[in-house]
Every structure is written in C-alpha cells, then in structure tokens.
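Dear colleagues,

I hope this message finds you well. In preparation for our joint manuscript, I am sending the FecR protein domain-containing protein (Hyphomonas pacifica) sequence together with its predicted structure, so that both groups work from identical material. I would be grateful if you could confirm receipt.
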Amino acid sequence: MSATVETQARKWLDLRISGDMNDEQRICFQNWMEQSEAHKLAYTQLARLWGDLSWSEALNADALAPSPREGVRRRSLGAFVSGPRAALLSGTLAACAGLAIFLSGQQMQGSSELVMASSAAPATIYETGIAEVRQVILADGSEVTLAGKSKLSVSFAEGRRQAKLLAGDGYFKISHDANRPFSVDAGHVVTRVLGTQFEINTRPAHVEVSVVEGAVEVSPVSGEQKANLTVGQRASVDRNGQIITSQFSPAQAASWRQQRLIFVNTPLQELVDEVNQYYPQGVYLGSTDIYEAEVTTSFRIDQIETAMSGIALGLDLDLIRTSADELVLRARSGQK
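The corresponding structure tokens are as follows:
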C-alpha cells in the first residue's frame, strides 16, 4: 500500500469522524473508494483500527520488543529530545476541492464504590490513582465519575454547591436545584449549571467542557468572555481565556467510563498525557517535533501498548521500550 493512498484514506476517515462531511464530499468519497481496491483496503484497515483496534498482537510484537535497552531517563513528559521531524496526520481534506465550571467509583477491575460527600465545609477531597475510575455520589444526589489520575474537591454550603477539579477528568451528572447553582473550578475556567450532564477535561494548555444533557455556562476565571453550551457542544478554553466552541457526538463523551479512549485529530502530546492516566509505566515522546502530530484513533485501556505500536506505524515513528518498561515514541533514526 502506497504512503499516498494511506494518507488519503486517513484524511477521509478524519473527515467522516468529524461529522462535518457534506453531500458533495460524500459523493467525492464514494468515487474515491470505487477508483481502486487499494483505496477500499486502505480505508477499511484504518476504519477497523478506529472501531476496535483489532489488529494482530503478533504483528506488533516486534515493534514492542525491548530494544537494546536504551537508557532513557525518566523526566517530565516531553523531556526526551532527539531526532528530526515526524509525519503529521492532517485533519484537513485535500482530495476534494471542508475557568470555573458550574456543575464526584468504579475500579477498572470491576469493583464499585459509592461515596457520600460532606454536606458542609471544609471541602472533601476525592482522588484516583493510575488506571482507576471512581464514582462519587454527593450529598445532593449529584454524581461525579473521576478518570484515572484525577482529583476533585467538593464543598457545599447554604445557597451554593462548589467543586474544584484539581487534576484529570470528570464526568458530572448534577441534580437540579434552582436555589443552589453548582459550580466547578477547573484551573483557569469556571462552569456553572443548575442541573445537567457534562464532561470536563483538564490539560496543560487548555480546559475542555462537553455537554451531554442540559446547558452550561463556561467562562475564564479572568475576562468577560463566556460561552453558553447545549447538548452536543464543546468549549475549549486556553490559558489566555480564548474560547473555541465545536460540535461533538455526546455518545463519545467520557468514553473512559467504558474503559475506552477516543481521539479525533488530537495532538500526540495531548494523547500521551491522557494515556498516562491509565498506563503506570509511562509513555513519553522522544523528540519535540512530534508533539503536534495529529492522531485519530480509538482503543481500549487494556490495549495501550498495542495502540502505541499502531500509532508509531501510522506516524512512521520508532517505538522503544526502556529498561524500566516505559514506552518512548520518537522520530525514526535518519529522518530529516
């Protein structure tokens, strides 16, 4: 399969997953698929990876085998610097000519835990470890599910319900109370609701809020800009207070609750940050020029090693396993 055909197939898949494909583009896509069996094969293989990552474990065994025990020092994510450029997965279509938050378990292994939050100050802290997903039931009946490596502070008082997402991700199902709005602070972003369901993701560069049910108001802690979101809308707020809104499929929200991770045109650095909430050994990037490489993929949390192998193949990267069983993605030797 040629690299050109694979690149075209990837762009078509990105466009279809985004939900932005119009009628003209659909016709163009069908024509492209019918041009050759190679086109059909390339697209089908990529779509299969997206659907369930059911590629052969044996096929990827060599890529994951411990290489000459390269001594890579553990540092903060992205601190490995070596190698030149990496291929990018473009989210654009070239084949056709398209912070406070007003809003707390279940182990990955299957055990569940319900925790009642304190109904008064001081704040109650809830925290999850790597690969742990925990459901918390608050005193007002609201529910919050925390992703791996996440931390939440909750404080109730007369006239207010307040939470702080201090790290990681949370899915919030808030009981309606017109007299006590629910707010969630997440870094530099505030979200306010009376009763709704939504997901919050905290990342180093931005905070993301996705609404599954009802409506929320999202605003930076500093600044006058704000966004009112309804079902199927998402807001990404950067550290400068800039808000970017987009559409998404509510069915894909907080997929980690079903032990699955979904990424659509996601920068590799951001993908690795999220993966490390579920992979104790750690995944790292070995060269700075691959941080922004965009990836569209989906895999189960118990498939992380296989998924990293597939991403390495798709981006033409090396995948190294260190003596500490860390996985390092880096540009191939000799690439310029």
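For the figure legend, we might mention the following. Residues 3-50 form one domain. Residues 52-120 have pLDDT under 50 and may be disordered.

With kind regards,
E.M.
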